[in-house]
Amino acid sequence: MLGNSLPAFERAKDLTNQLVTFAKGGEPKKKKGDLGKIVTDTVKFALTGSEIVPEFHSDKEIYTAEFDPFQIGQVIENIIVNAKHAMSDKGILEIGIDTVLMDDKGTELLAPGEYVRISIKDSGTGIPSEHRNNIFDPFFTTKKEGTGLGLATSWSIIKRHGGTIDFDSEKGRGTVFRIYIPSAECELESESSSKESFSGRGRILIMDDEFIIREVAGKMLKDAGFTVDKAVSGEEAVDMYKEAFNKGIPYDVIILDLTIPGGMGGNKALQKIKEFHKDVAAICSSGYSEDDIISNPQKYGFAASLPKPYLRETFSEVIRKVISGKK
After folding, report:
1. Bridge pairing between strands 90-102 and 64-67
2. Can you list the alpha helix ranges (DSSP code H) found in the chain?
3. Same domain, yes or no: 36 and 159
4. In the structure, what pLDDT confidence band is assigned to residue 194 with cuts at 50, 70 and 90?
């Protein structure tokens, strides 16, 4: 009886986390950067493991804007999830990035100025006409396991960035979502220097219940020169960390996913590890950027936080700071 109720409990907890994110408003923590790279990295990450092939189209190399990378990553991922569902995980997904100029009058939803436009076009079933006026409404969903908060949260995030989202859809021929975010002028470091700065030595343990997350994070760390081990639950992470600690070779950093359905999450795992190693350097990870632990990691004993989806620049910056802080 209890076993049968666990999936329902986990779904309720997931819904609560999304609702908290939506209700809090999620004021973006903006910084200037290359919006195009965030889009490209997030799309590739979100499609890892599926048979959907992304095709990217852009009219220039860099699209500068002022934005919250975690929130924009969440928006892109939400739309990709819908596309995957509509396409049954097969086919071609077209990703377009360009700039558009709104004249002095602007539009009802956009002020005058230049915008970066992100287009995501799937080849799926399309959105039925009777649903098109409701897709951005909270709790509206046609999926059995859906919460109806993905697109509603995405709309809220983009509005807080000073932009908007619109779409076109034709039954049986797919849907295209268009995201508009104000562009900005800024100086950016080259991609080559960014990648060169992400290197180091040490042992890192990644705990996450999702195979794709473990593989992507593990590859980024291995490419940077780290030795990586992986765990699928808090219990396994505690056992692996304890074994390494007792052998005199503790991990330099441990990355802990906060939410593990049916198992021990990252926060509890960290407390267990601190019972035998108070100076553990731990990073908390979550797909909910408004989680209080993500917002205030030090308050809970973590050295830093990593919202999902992982972006190479943010990922490398956090790892580098935590490693440096131990020296």
Report:
1. unpaired
2. 2-24, 35-47, 69-86, 150-160, 191-197, 211-223, 234-246, 266-274, 292-295, 312-325
3. yes
4. very low
Residue 165 in domain: yes
**DSSP code for 113:** E
Contact criterion met (CB below 8 Å) for 196 and 72: no
In a domain, 13, yes or no: no
> Mean of the pLDDT values across residues 137-145?
56
- Cα torsion 108, 110, 114, 116: sign: negative
Does residue 201 share a domain with residue 168? no
Domains held by the chain: number: 2
Give residue-wise pLDDT tens across range 204-230. 999 999 887 888 888 888 888 899 999
- Are residues 310 and 201 located together in one domain of the fold? yes
Query: What is the pLDDT confidence band of residue 20, given thresholds at 50, 70 and 90?
Result: very low
Nearby residues of 194 by Cβ (< 8 Å), 6 or more positions away: 312, 313, 316
Task: Work out the mean pLDDT of the chain and round it to a whole number.
Answer: 81
Decide: 257 and 264 in contact? Cβ < 8 Å.
no
Name the pLDDT band for 198 (thresholds 50, 70, 90). low
Parallel, antiparallel, or unpaired for β 174-182 and 164-170?
Answer: antiparallel
Residue 48 CA to residue 220 CA, distance in Å, equals: 14
Distance CA 101, CA 79 (A): 24
**DSSP class per residue in 50-105:** SEEEEEEEESSS--EEEE-HHHHHHHHHHHHHHHHHHTTTEEEEEEEEEEEEE-TT
How far is it, in rounded angstroms, from Cα 96 to Cα 63?
A: 12
Pairwise pLDDT comparison (203 vs 2), residue with the higher score = 203
Q: Is the pLDDT of residue 254 over 90?
A: yes
Which pTM does this prediction carry? 0.60
Pairwise CA distance, residues 209 & 229, whole Å? 14
Local structure of residue 148 (DSSP, 8 states): S
Domain-ending residue, one of 131, 158, 182: 182
DSSP code, position 198: S
